[in-house]
Design goal:
The chain is built from eleven helices and two strands. The protein is mostly helical. It folds into two domains: 6-88, no CATH class; 96-214, no CATH class. Strands 1-2 form a two-stranded parallel sheet. Helix 3 (40-53) crosses helix 5 (78-94) and helix 7 (108-114) crosses helix 8. The longest helix has 40 residues, at 175-214. The radius of gyration is 23 Å and the shape is elongated.
């Protein structure tokens, strides 16, 4: 039975909460004292739903229950799980087009520097031409949706260190996750950016023109 976890949360958080509510309503209907799950994603989703709906219903890991039943000391993982979920939820929000656009606006200096074939310098030069340069950049604007998918793959490697730093500012994460980000982030961007650019480019086009005109 689906708890409404990862896929639903990424695609539609409101639906995820409704599905989680259904599962907990089923527990309420039989006066359950707790819900036991073996799946970490289910545990976190149900704990989040318990917290958001004000229920007093423990969500217990099967391994933790087995330890308690056997008299083996075992810390309650709820607080840790909720803290980790907060990181995951913030990361999901960061992957929305509006949030990614804000991130890219912050990285305009590095992105323009990383443009291949001297294009960044050329665009900066155009931006310095005053009203004429502004008009030229606006004429280029319809080309941005075509240019960025071509340019981004070559830019990402150069921009990645600054992107990682910007993500760390936005997403509180444990040291163990920070250590993995240099490996995880490039792969995630390689996979996601081609799909997201059509939604992101319209959001960054005017800010990019404003940035170029200000330099």
């Amino acid at each position: 039975l689906c708890c409404g976890s990862v896929l639903s949360l990424v695609a539609d958080p409101a639906i995820a909460k409704e599905i989680g509510d259904v599962r907990l309503d089923e527990a309420d209907a039989v006066n359950a004292e707790a819900v036991v799950s073996t799946c970490p994603c289910c545990q976190v989703q149900l704990r989040v739903t318990v917290e958001k709906t004000g229920r007093d219903l423990p969500i217990i890991d099967l391994g933790a229950l087995a330890c308690r039943s056997s008299g083996i000391p075992h810390d309650d993982p709820t607080e840790y799980a909720l803290n980790m979920w907060a990181t995951f939820e913030t990361m999901i929000n960061l992957l929305k087009p509006e949030q990614m656009a804000d991130l890219m606006v912050e990285l305009f200096p590095q992105m323009v520097d990383a443009m291949p074939l001297g294009m960044g310098g050329m665009m900066r030069g155009i931006g310095k031409l005053g009203p004429v340069g502004g008009a030229m950049l606006k004429m280029m604007k319809p080309m941005f949706p075509l240019l960025f998918p071509i340019l981004m793959p070559g830019m990402m490697e150069k921009v990645m260190p600054d992107m990682l730093a910007a993500v760390e500012k936005r997403v509180p994460m444990p040291d163990s996750m920070k250590e993995q980000m240099p490996d995880l982030m490039p792969a995630a961007m390689d996979n996601l950016m081609p799909k997201m650019l059509p939604a992101i480019v319209p959001l960054i086009s005017d800010p990019l023109i404003d940035y170029l005109r200000s330099k």
